[in-house]
Amino acid sequence: MPVILVSGFDAWGDLSANPAWLAVEAASPQLPSDWEIQKIKLPVSWSSAFEQLRDAWSYDVEAVLCFGVAPIDGVAVERIAINLAEGSDVDGTPPPHPSVIEDGPAGYWSTLPVDTIHRALVAAGLPAKLSAHAGTYLCNALLYQVIDHALWTKPGIPVGFIHLSNLKSPGSVDQETLARAVELAIEATLSGEGDLPQDLIKA
Fold first, then answer.
1. Which CATH class is domain 3-189?
2. Domain coordinates of the chain in residue numbers?
3. 69-108: string of b/e by CB count within 10 Å (b at 16+)?
4. Which of 8, 89, 174, 180 could tie 20 with a disulfide, CB 3.0–4.6 Å?
5. Any stretches that span the bilayer, and where are they (predicted)?
């Protein structure tokens, strides 16, 4: 039975509970009848975030959707991961190398149906946008590593990253809306309505 692996990050900084993980945990998407969902909470750690995701990545995983927070009001569907790592993690540790993967390509395209996801979010009335790239912090690194891993192990499956509001700005959506965004993103990912040619994986 195919599995969609969905992740959110654990608490960090002044977030005693990470809205991304709370949204993933609360989400109850309508899955195709033959699909299962597996959820995992990842540490905000350069050394172990991707490793824990990879350990949970079984042969049955046919889609991977990762979530994190950013200082935005709603939802940002990320299109590109760049091979650049900056910033200290929850333990105050910097990345081991300025590149996410040494000698890797400058960037990778998300293989999610990003336009389909964006349309679904907007149609539901959520403040959503397409984002050029996922930044240079752990969210971006996770996206880069996930795409790279999929490319070598099961090329062509939909994998990607979506930023959710950290709920700190006055105009932010609420936690319930973030959970709905996660549901819609998962449902759109598994809808079969792809919109990104799979030969455009490398940026």
1. alpha beta
2. 3-189
3. bbebbbbbbbbbbbbbbeeebbeeeebeeebbeeeebebb
4. 8
5. none
